[in-house]
Amino acid sequence: MNYWVITDCHFGHRFMEKCCGRPKDFEEIILQNLRRRVMRDDVLINLGDYIWPDRSRWNRQYMAATLGCRHWFVRGNHDWEPDQWYLDNGFDMVCEELKIKRFGKEILFSHKPMIDPETKIDIRFGPETTQLTIFRYDINIHGHFHNNDHRKYEPELVSIHNDRQHLLALENVNYEPIKLEKIINERFGT
Predict the structure, then answer these.
(1) Which positions ≥6 away from 97 have C-beta within 8 Å?
(2) Which of 10, 29, 67, 122 is the most buried (most CB within 10 A)?
């Protein structure tokens, strides 16, 4: 069994051709790559911004391309359907973020990058302030930024940038799902 990661498919979202330079047939390229790589006993972790706006057509094609594998879905900023829609349409799990331990590393999957785990934040409960530490991770695998510099439009995400974040942009990996083991090996030299 292998773990695969994909993000920001944006099936049906024509603006992706203009803003990210995607080819006109980018959806079919993604689907072909999924068919070639992801096997029946694998787990595919989708980091959001899955389909927009034509949900039914692209969902059928995506699910057919990955028939039989387990699907875990981390919501993105364009994923507005209720959790039940994703569960009814082929995903095995839906969440806002996902943390697992694999290959000896604490891995946090999210759509947008997450704050550094060493950062302490103050939370007010009535007149008292409590300091919390964000949960620990070795690597935060995320999407959202694509191959362009959206960061200049989202200063709140720039302000939390840290060296544990790992951007996965489909445009930079030939529209292929990436094996989780490969990301960890490249990042940590294992």
Answers:
(1) 74, 108, 109, 110, 114
(2) 10
